[in-house]
Amino acid sequence: TRQPIRDYRTALTGLRPTDLASAPTFIEVQSRVRALIRTKIIVGYALWDFLSLLNLSHPAIDTRDVALFMSFRRTLGVRPSTMIPLKDLVLRFMGRNIGLYGEVPVEQARAALDLFRSCEQMWEEVIRSSSWPCALPPIAHANCFT
């Protein structure tokens, strides 16, 4: 069912009611995203956040989540359960600052993709060897992966 938006958080998002007047419904967006990612490898940071918001799941073998990549964690000396902020990963491994002007989704997506590309060969080799290169996602989001 369609529920009214109670707080647009305009100061943070810049969104106003008129901006979303003709926006697609949640169900429409969910269906579009489901169709777009079906049979695709998806790359990102903390993918469970986005999958859970859309009430979707995706095959774990088809995810490349830089938040969970063990090579990054070992290099930084953190436990598997510790979440390393994306901006810290990008600064450490790419030598680049992101988020200087707040959270910009396109910037974050590009940064996650750049991180993945920087170690893609190693990542895929681990998978080809029948191992898994990532820590597990938070247990509360295990249902996001099949």
TrEMBL record:
Q: Name one GO cellular component term.
A: nucleus
Highest taxon listed in the record's lineage: Eukaryota
Keyword Hydrolase listed: yes
**Keyword annotations for this protein?**
Exonuclease, Hydrolase, Nuclease
Instruction: Give the Gene Ontology MF terms in alphabetical order.
Output: exonuclease activity; nucleic acid binding
Q: Does the keyword Hydrolase apply?
A: yes
Q: What is this protein called?
A: Exonuclease domain-containing protein
Organism taxonomic ancestry: Eukaryota, Fungi, Dikarya, Basidiomycota, Agaricomycotina
